[in-house]
Queue: 2 jobs
Job 1
Amino acid sequence: MKIITRFAPSPTGYLHIGGARTALYSWLFSRSNKGIFILRIEDTDINRSNIKSVNSIIEGLKWLKINWDKGPFFQTNNLYRYNKIINLMLNNGNAYKCYCSKNRLNLLRNYQIKNNIKPRYDKFCINFKNKNENKKYVIRFLNPENGYVIFNDKIRGLIKTNNNELDDFIICRENGIPTYNFSSVIDDLDMNITHIIRGSEHINNTPKQINIFKSLGCKIPKYAHVSIILGDDGKKLSKRYFSNNINDYKYKGYIPEALINYILKLGWSYKNKEIFTISEMKKYFNFKNFVKSSSIFDIKKLNWINQYYLNNMSIKKIKSNILPYIKENKLNISKKPKIENVIKLFNKRCKNLVEMSKFFKYIYNIDIIINYKVIKYILKFKNIFKILIIIYNKFNKIKFWTYKNINNIIFEIKNEFNLNMYNVCMPLRIIITGKKNTPNINNIIYIIKKKKTLYRINNLINILFNFKYFD
Ligand SMILES: [Zn+2]
């Protein structure tokens, strides 16, 4: 049997953490079984669906490299097919038209609640057939009155629902567009979906959907309902201190593999393994290792994994990940230094790609930002004006721009002025980079080469001169 899975989001918002996780599980299961993974956009709720959400979902999946084999299919392109089956069901008595007004349904509901009866539709219209052709109607599924719906959830085990707990739910709205529970079943059927992996908020839909499958005499797919994800306050994921939107992690410079690694483990585990490559994920993924209880989204853990990836990824991989951010910052990296050498300076000390690409500014741009505050800070260092002029002259005389030669000059200055390393390197660091916290300044001076180094030192000498600063 060919394994076929799908990710079927409703485009009523961005791709959130939970959605990305079910997409990941469905994708991994199909990939680990050489199956097919389908992307289906469930947009039959036309008032809430929008193209912006579709684009956001697709952007998120592409960034995470969760690639689909077929689709995206849009349910609104398939209305003809749904209506054909609904007509079939009307004809064979598996569905019927309901002309009840909202008012009547409200009265019914209130009466049932008042009398401690579970609110459900009372089949009032079941025998009307087509008598009220001109009145608006919805179409209801004729749910079996007796017996049980039993399915073996791949994560939760046997789930049994009494049919008398389900009512004749609506499968087609007044506007002729089918509801989620119906269109979803028809597509799962037509696409030969074998395994449906989705959030546990769908557990209540599953018996209804199974009953539709049964009424059509079709094979029922296997279901797996994954646990919910909560914030560390035990409540639903909120936007209080981190985002639930996958694309925000892209904009903040996370590594997609790191995010996937983290999301994978929200609800699934393998021994005590923390870090998984994508091929390891495909290799180890199975239904046995799912966690039934809810999981907690921990941003600190995600940050730890992200940093781990950044520190341990190959330079080549970091390069391909950081290029979009470099483009965003409009940095011209076509000239020297080689980006690989720059990455080597920073990959062990950055938390994310945005931070790293910001550091690239003082490597690739000619000018750096030196504000008044910085100048005041530099002025605190003793003999700084003299030191800068001497450093400038010494650097200017260097014939071979080697790390060793740069290092020697810094040592000479240190000894000449009887200073400690900090008092030479710190002002130099700020003049060269505009920042107090950088990798070894000798390395930076070496990598940005002579011209840029002299340019920046000279710039500061001029600024200090204009400040009428003399020792
Ligand atoms: Zn009715």
Job 2
Amino acid sequence: MRDLILPIALVTLCACTPKQAEQTTSTDATAGAAATAASASDHAFLPPINAADFAEHVRVLASDAFEGRGPGTAGEEKTVNYIKSQFARIGLQPGNGDSWFQNVPMVETTANESAVLQLKIGDTQQALKFGTDMVVGTRTGQTQVSVKDSPVVFIGYGVDAPERGWNDYAGLDVKGKTVVMLVNDPGFHANDPKLFDGKRMTYYGRWTYKFDEAARKGAKAALIIHDTPGASYGWDVVKNSWSGPQYDLPAADDPDPRLPIQGWISGEAAEALFKAAGQDLAKLRAAANKPGFKAVALNANASIDLSSTTVDKNSRNVIGLLPGSKTPQEAVAYMAHWDHLGKHEGETGDNIYNGAVDNATGVAGILELAEAFKNATPAPERSILFIAVTLEESGLLGSKYYVAHPVIPLDKTVAVINLDALSPIGKSETLTVVGKDSSQLEDLLMAAIKPQGRTMVDESNTAAGYYFRSDHFNFAKAGVPALYIGSGDDLVEGGKQAGEAAGQAYNAERYHKPGDQYDPATWNVDGIVQDLEAIESVGSTLANSGQWPNWYDGNPFKAARDTMMKKAAVK
Ligand SMILES: [Zn+2]
């Protein structure tokens, strides 16, 4: 979840990457890490999904020894080898041919944070500092990027949505320019249910979409104005996420254009910019919320010299397979990202981002599901894949790579069920479906939770766009029916009030912070066990039938699936 889920405030996942702890490519270190990982737990695991086993996996994965599971670090070595050794202990087979690993080539780019964004506004100057006023980076892989006197244009939300008759770029040529835009989409800030999807964030509200669109339009630089409600997280999360090494798939592998400079500008710095340019940002925000908004050239030029270091590296997806007894060529997939923010050497005090909730819980979840399915009788007829992807915090890159290089063809992949940041706050009367009312998988889920006496609910903060912020989204975009569940927030003990309080506390104190740690004293994973049993039942129904669930009519991803399956039928 480039930005995770807790029912209430829901965790917000955002692209963050770990500081480089240490390079551990030597085989001894790898072998050492493998041995350490394999012996990381001498717990006696049992076949059925249970709280003690689940907690043990989280304890290990979120331990300081795993150093916040940063891609390309010693933490990666320990993590991928732990998952592999557990898959092997459970009795799965390597999922990528005869390997447990799928290499994901990546480029690690670290911006020099002494970079200053110079704004010439009329005859005044403003110098925006990294971390306080702005954060920037480059996805080009270039170690030196220079922008000189690039005209600054305010483009509202930076959305070009032909199917909604909305284009903030209409009649505008932004080639070589610096575009400044608002986060989220018009429906959110205008608080108008008829505009876009109202308070529910559309993909156009996501920063990833905004940068991709500005790149397609040929801009030189793009800056998003931060506001906490619109982003659904504070400036500290943006700063944490954009500081230190950033990871990306190599530009050469990516067909889409990339911006020389992209980043965020703080609300305060934006106010100062617009004021100095003789513009009223509040007024322009209001104008941007109206159909037919016209972009506004600010009487300003932007300049920046950004130097970065780049290192070509590899990270790994870890894939385990339970071959089907009857139709092994068809598969149901369970997925969870194993990576988190790593260890930030430059920070004092506790600088390990343990990522217990985000996402040791998800990885523990697929390990528990694997053990349950391996011991199921009869054995599932279709195959079941267990995919622990990397680089989620860096932009859903491990799952993006997997979807481009699936070990079982996507037209033979029945469905994917994604786990990202489950909440250890006890049993709930409800189960959250992120992006509810999307596919027939929810019909199976409903049938699975009925005997639990529970109901399905939508995520409580639809404005945060969680549907676009975790790995299932790459599968959905390709058409594969995807289910992304989160724990409910109407707690058996304490009701909604307790659930919401727990979520807000997590979001404020632990989300993407060193404080996201496993605490046996306060963690109650009974609700998570119930959630896992529910999705076990969904997977079991699919794995023991010839069903091909699809997206509901009107869902944006249905067309891709229908086309895919039509092609498969004539193969
Ligand atoms: Zn996550």
